[in-house]
Amino acid sequence: MSTQESLLQVRDLRKRFNISGDFLDQLQFKGGKIVRHQEHVHAINGVNFDVSKGEALCVVGESGCGKSTVARTVMGLLKPSAGSISYKGERIDHLSDTALLPYRKKMQMIFQNPYASLNPRMTITQTLEEPVRFHNPSMSGAEVRERVKEVMYSVGIDPGWGVRYPHEFSGGQRQRISIARALTVEPEFIVADEPISALDVSIQAQVLNLMMQTQEERDLTYLFITHDLSVVEHFGTRVAVMYLGTVCELAATKTLFAEPKHPYTQALLSAIPRLEDNRPNHIKLQGEVPTPVNLPTGCVFHGRCPYANDRCRQEIPALIAQSDGSQVACHGIEEGRL
């Protein structure tokens, strides 16, 4: 945990989705009796982290590890099954939609797909003015237009484009519009869920640089969800590495890339293409990622970890602080055998 003021606190967050269907679908005939059988996808399993003011905390991991579910649960788009989410020390995960309104202004989200996140029936001006009017009912029409114009300039959109519709723009331009929409209400905290993965590589750098520039200008804090490790190295202050719904390592970006500790993090980082001669060999993991429907016992990574022992198969490891400030959930590191 950094010494700066903590903006967001996530404690033992869990989210599961019922995939059993309706009541009749759940009934099964077993051993001469009718029994009710329910199945769940365990998307997040006891996640803990803090986001400090002014930082960009990147959450990385492969597809299906629960990154986007964390983002949506933090934003209140999904209700957690257990655990708590606090903003500036005030718990927000159990609030009603009305009680959440003041937080909606402070916390904004940028979605992955700029083609789906903009309303095709609204012009760009309407899209950008709507949240300003909603959150600031006392503002006059001229003030709303002035704020939208200022935000459009700041993200590199010509205010003259405001009369057009989303389908008239490229993916990169639409994502700029999405960023502008998040910024119009002057938030403090932005959750960005893979905001550049749907864009061309040439455009990705522009959008990333824009997000870094707005972070400096507006003193923003980011929770940045991505699976692209080169983006993390460029953008992140700290990194949380997720595997199957749990955080296995949390460290400052430089520390993580220089000295990854968890066996899964080491395997992830070894897969980044590098030009240096002295780079570590690519670590090939055995087996497949288990299904989040039937979670493995103990450490969720034990089935693919070359260092797993009986304790790893039975006991869930906790995130333990290391001497360099990072936190790792690994029995092998705790016992000093790695």
Task: Please outline the helices and strands.
Blueprint (H helix, E strand, L loop, with lengths): L5 E13 L4 H4 E4 L2 E4 L3 E13 L3 E5 L6 H8 L7 E6 L2 E2 L5 H10 E4 L13 H12 L5 H14 L16 H13 L5 E5 L7 H18 L2 E5 L3 H7 L2 E6 L2 E7 H6 L4 H8 L39 H5 L5 E2 L5 E2 L2 H4 L4
Parallel strand pairs: 5-10, 5-11, 8-9, 9-10
Antiparallel strand pairs: 1-4, 1-6, 2-3, 6-7, 11-12, 12-14, 13-14
Helix pairs in contact: 4-5, 5-6, 6-7
Description:
The chain is α/β, with parallel strands linked by helices. The chain has two domains: 6-14 and 50-243, 3-Layer(aba) Sandwich (Rossmann fold); 248-338, no CATH class. The protein has helices at residues 23-26, 67-74, 97-106, 124-135, 141-154, 171-183, 201-218, 229-235, 253-258, 263-270, 310-314, 331-334, and strands at 6-18, 27-30, 33-36, 40-52, 56-60, 82-87, 90-91, 107-110, 189-193, 221-225, 238-243, 246-252, 320-321, 327-328. A hairpin with a 2-residue loop joins strand 6 and strand 7 (90-91). Helix 4 (124-135) packs across helix 5 (141-154).
